[in-house]
Amino acid sequence: MELEDIRREYTKGGLRRKDLLADPIAQFDFWLKQAIDAGLTDPTAMTVATVDESGQPFQRIVLLKDVDQNGFIFYTNLGSRKAQQIEANSKVSLHFPWHPLERQVHITGVAEKLSAVENMKYFSSRPKASQLAAIASKQSSRISARGVLEGKFLELKKKFEQGEIPVPSFWGGFRIKPQSIEFWQGGEHRLHDRFLFSKDAEEWHIDRLAP
Ligand SMILES: Cc1cc2nc3c(=O)[nH]c(=O)nc-3n(C[C@H](O)[C@H](O)[C@H](O)COP(=O)(O)O)c2cc1C
């Protein structure tokens, strides 16, 4: 099998302007719910793209933990490579690849840190092992061996055997305030449908883009 022979037709029926909701967050919620209901693996997984100081882009997957009119929320280590890049340049892009539904959503926006109260609320809802792992891992730093990480985890497990685990100061969330949201639906003969919502003076404008 040659890679160039791998292709498929997109047959789910496309996306028409009349079927699009006027509010892109409502449209996103609708598609996300369909992705969850369809049983997709990791339906909330999204790629976050950031750039470093030289303009070099980086991408990685994180999990969407909330979305509303204020933006898209994910949690991470605040000393991580992505967090350092966001500190220097808060412009990011998000991408949801929902292949089985022949859909993708592409978002551009600006990241801001969540409040300590928001961080605490989510941190305390996580399983204890995840809380410990978040403390044990100095995300994105170089380590000599896996044993270092496991040793730290066991040490913390012992330390916090009883009682609540405090939210570490180096852990928290980002909210991405969207500037644009594009909905892509595969179409027959590669005639896909693309609708771009762009925010201008707090108003959303819709344009159809060529595929
Ligand atoms: C399915 C999946 C979900 C992930 N979710 C998160 C997440 O919510 N937060 C996070 O910091 N990293 C998450 N990761 C790990 C990131 O992709 C990445 O490796 C890590 O955040 C370090 O990225 P950085 O060094 O660019 O900062 C996830 C990875 C996968 C594959």
Outline:
By secondary structure, the protein is an alpha+beta fold. The protein has a single domain (8-116, 166-208), classed as Electron Transport, Fmn-binding Protein, Chain A (Pnp Oxidase, Chain A, Roll), CATH 2.30.110.10. The protein is built from 5 helices and 9 strands, in the order αββββαββαααβββ.
Walk me through this protein's architecture:
The model has no long low-confidence stretch (mean pLDDT 97). Strands 1, 2, 3, 4, 5, 6, 7, 8 and 9 form a nine-stranded antiparallel β-sheet that branches. By secondary structure, this protein is an alpha+beta fold. The protein has one domain (8-116, 166-208): Electron Transport, Fmn-binding Protein, Chain A (Pnp Oxidase, Chain A, Roll). Helix 4 (128-136) packs across helix 5 (146-159). It is globular and about 60 Å long. The protein has helices spanning 24-37, 81-88, 116-125, 128-136, 146-159, and strands spanning 45-51, 57-63, 66-68, 71-77, 91-98, 103-113, 171-185, 193-200, 203-209. Strand 1 (45-51) and strand 2 form a beta hairpin. It starts with 23 loop residues before the first helix and ends with a strand. The structure holds flavin mononucleotide. The site of flavin mononucleotide (FMN) has 16 residues, from strand 2, strand 4 and helix 2.
